[in-house]
Write a structure and sequence with these properties.
The chain is globular. Helix 5 packs across helix 8. The protein is α+β, with helices and mostly antiparallel strands and about 375 residues long. About 0% of the residues have low confidence. The protein folds into two domains: about 100 residues, Rieske Iron-sulfur Protein (3-layer Sandwich); about 200 residues, Alpha-Beta Complex (Naphthalene 1,2-dioxygenase Alpha Subunit, Chain A, domain 1), CATH 3.90.380.10. The longest helix is centred in the last third of the chain and has 16 residues. Bound molecules: FE2/S2 (inorganic) cluster (FES) and fe (ii) ion. FE2/S2 (inorganic) cluster binds next to loops. Fe (ii) ion binds next to loops.
């Protein structure tokens, strides 16, 4: 057992995270090793790699990874670093039959095999020894996840508990809109942003005029979940209830009748994180009938068709304010029943960082 496996980072999941989780370098190092470089991490929506030859650079933890759709239609996740001198191979979305380094034109196929090294005598470079490392990549309901750990559990197993809830929302097919994703930098630890995205407890206070009139805190409820994945729900004025899925470490998505809106966080050190947002619509809905969450999406993507809804800036502001507090000395408070998803997240951290097996899936009947 390595030092990082020692349970001394363990904490009581029924309470808020300890201050050490936000300021202790040991936490940061353990999260990188045990979560961001070992667990499934959301990478992209599958539609961003729809055609053979599509290439999309992403960052998993702090590792540059290149997603590739090969000619057979299969997804691969390769190191995005040239096996020659480490140059970043692909910087933006591309479509090409090969991966060619911009520096000395070493060239790789879609499986990461080195097929050309210009001006190198045939026996000078062992091509087998200069392939791009490949990582685990799987797609789940159109969401592409990558893991740098070859032994991570299959994605279908990881999210099995909430799969029926998600399937029930996809009847008409979701049309993803990856080209309209946005990315922001928030001045807070990634866990602050993730927990905020998971729980509906803060809606009445932080989103008093933006969300609360449409998705009131009092109507939020727990459906099913565990440390691996959680489904919650709540009323959505004038429409079917929303379904909120939380997929730790960093992905949260909300299904309404005609849309799926999501947020993905990843760390930039201890005090900052990136927050990506995007949306998908049911095929036949067009841009109609999306309700308040659709308005929010319209705001995110800057579509003039929707009036401004400003709840994302509210989340950013409160998360950054949390960050200014939690690195001080405080005794972590008890979580309330409405924060059960945050308890699940605590078990997730204890599981990944300390090897503590999380409780089994638990469910509550719909209200
Ligand atoms: S660094 Fe890529 S070919 Fe030289
Ligand atoms: Fe919020």
């Amino acid at each position: 057992m390595t030092e990082l496996n020692a349970p001394r980072l363990a904490f009581d999941p029924n309470r808020a995270l300890p201050a050490a989780a936000y300021r202790d370098p040991e936490w940061l190092a353990a999260e990188k090793e045990k979560i961001w470089h070992a667990d499934w991490v959301f990478a992209a929506m599958e539609d961003a790699l729809a055609a053979p030859g599509d290439q999309l650079p992403v960052v998993i933890g702090d590792q540059p990874v290149l997603l590739v759709r090969n000619q057979a239609g299969e997804l691969a996740a390769l190191s995005n670093l040239c096996a020659h001198r480490g140059t970043l191979l692909v910087e933006g979305p591309a479509n090409a039959a090969r991966i060619r380094c911009p520096y000395h034109a070493w060239t790789y196929d879609h499986a990461g095999r080195l097929i050309a090294a210009p001006f190198a005598p045939e026996d000078a470079i062992d091509k087998q020894a200069h392939c791009l490392p490949a990582y685990r990549v799987e797609s789940w309901h159109g969401l592409v996840f990558v893991s740098l750990d070859p032994d991570v559990e299959p994605l279908a197993e990881r999210f099995a508990a909430i799969a029926p809830d998600v399937s029930s929302r996809e009847g008409n097919g979701l049309r993803h809109l990856s080209q309209q994703e946005t990315t922001q930098v928030w001045e807070c630890n990634w866990k602050v942003a993730m927990m905020n995205g998971m729980e509906s407890y803060h809606v009445f206070r932080v989103h008093a005029t933006t969300l609360e009139p449409f998705t009131p805190t009092r109507d939020a409820y727990y459906i099913t979940g565990s440390a691996r994945a959680t489904a919650t729900g709540g009323s959505n004025k004038g429409e079917d209830d929303y379904l909120l899925i939380s997929l730790p470490p960093g992905f949260v998505g909300v299904f309404t009748r005609d849309s799926f809106l999501w947020q993905a966080v990843s760390p930039l050190g201890q005090n900052r994180c990136t927050v990506r947002t995007g949306g998908s619509f049911v095929e036949d809905s067009g841009a109609r009938g999306l309700g308040r969450l659709g308005e929010w999406f319209g705001w995110i993507v800057g579509a003039a068709a929707y009036p401004a809804a400003d709840f994302l800036p509210e989340d950013k502001a409160i998360c950054e304010r949390v960050q200014r507090g939690v690195t001080g000395d405080f005794v972590p408070g008890r979580l309330v029943p409405m924060e059960r998803v945050v308890v699940d997240f605590g078990h997730y951290l204890n599981w990944r960082l300390n090897g503590i097996e999380p409780p089994a899936v638990h469910s509550e009947p719909a209200p």
